Amino acid sequence: MRLTFFFVFLLFISSSTLATASPPPSPDRYLSSLLRRPPRQHQQQDYIELSHPLPTDRLVPSCSHLLLNHSFAYTYGQPPTSVPYAPPSTCPPPWTYVVLDLRVAVRGDQYDRIAGLWLGGVELLRTSTAEPTEDGVYWRVRKDVTKYASLLARSDLDFSVMLENLVNADFEQETKFENSIKFQNNGNDKKVKQSVTSKTEIKITNVVGEVVGQASLKRKYPLKVITSTRDMGNGTYHLFTNVDHSLKERFSSGNISSSLTNSQASDGWMLVHDHNVLSGEAKTDQSYVYIDNYSCYTRNVAAVNGQLTRDNTSFICPNYW
Ligand SMILES: *[C@@H]1O[C@H](CO)[C@@H](O)[C@H](O)[C@H]1NC(C)=O
Ligand SMILES: *[C@@H]1O[C@H](CO)[C@@H](O)[C@H](O)[C@H]1NC(C)=O
Ligand SMILES: *[C@@H]1O[C@H](CO)[C@@H](O)[C@H](O)[C@H]1NC(C)=O
Ligand SMILES: *[C@@H]1O[C@H](CO)[C@@H](O)[C@H](O)[C@H]1NC(C)=O
Ligand SMILES: *[C@@H]1O[C@H](CO)[C@@H](O)[C@H](O)[C@H]1NC(C)=O
Fold first, then answer.
1. Are residues 149 and 50 in the same domain?
2. I want to staple 12 with a disulfide (CB 3.0 to 4.6 A). Which of 61, 106, 237, 289 is the partner?
3. Which ligand is nearest to the CA of 308?
4. What span is annotated as the signal peptide, if there is one (predicted)?
């Protein structure tokens, strides 16, 4: 099976403000074509991930800068793909915002994999690829990389991308893990419940030991999976699956707090004969609720058999905050 990855990296450089958001100073046809989805061969499916919008989402970028357009095939055990980097000559620094825009299209039989990208050895992004369908899937990842502006202004660096399994070991935190698995009905019904909580505390003290700064990050990842199998005889069976999982995060630094709840509930069934899926259905519901001292953001998305049935976004704060 042939595996094809297309990665397009773009830098959006904005020097306009919300009030002056208008067509770019020098209309950039290249940009407008890039802003659209990747070329759709067959019926590629759009994978969406709920996340907080970026402050630049309502701005028109002054220019875009293509960093790499690459097809990754068999990269296992290979060195990262590296290209020389130079900032765009058409829109020199200083920049107000810089956003990294990654577009990926994948087709074929492929597991999810961890990918990382670096500029001059500095990690700009670490992400994971999705498992594609046969017709292919595509998605976008955007990240505000304004804080790397001094690096992005240099032209003596290499831009590298690695698409392989990577291990990240530089977190210091307290993690609790609980897992229970129940088998019922001769093992035809299985129930898995798992809960992971992590807590990271940072304290900054001055020379006389007084606390001058404090931050805390608490995360919970509850997960519940229920599967039931019903044998229909003659090598045919029905498989029912229900998956509920969430990320619950509380962050506080000084007198500023934020909370995020990102939950997904999915249900599906399939009829299988000799390892072939004869029929099936799946539905999923996801909600993303972010609240901090200055803003709120909620998005609710539902899909049935891969088709979006609801997509609601709100910036109104729930009144319990
Ligand atoms: C990326 O490369 C592919 C294949 O060479 C091409 O079809 C596509 O137009 C390129 N995209 C951009 C943004 O240059
Ligand atoms: C297997 O049995 C089920 C019901 O018991 C029946 O509906 C189905 O047609 C059979 N399938 C095959 C491939 O024989
Ligand atoms: C929050 O903390 C900042 C910095 O410590 C301080 O300047 C500000 O007055 C505080 N605001 C409130 C409402 O307590
Ligand atoms: C931010 O919200 C938290 C939680 O409600 C509250 O304790 C804190 O005082 C708020 N900070 C500011 C600066 O309003
Ligand atoms: C969004 O939610 C409102 C009220 O909750 C509902 O009336 C509306 O139909 C929803 N829109 C979509 C596209 O689902």
1. yes
2. 61
3. 5
4. 1-21
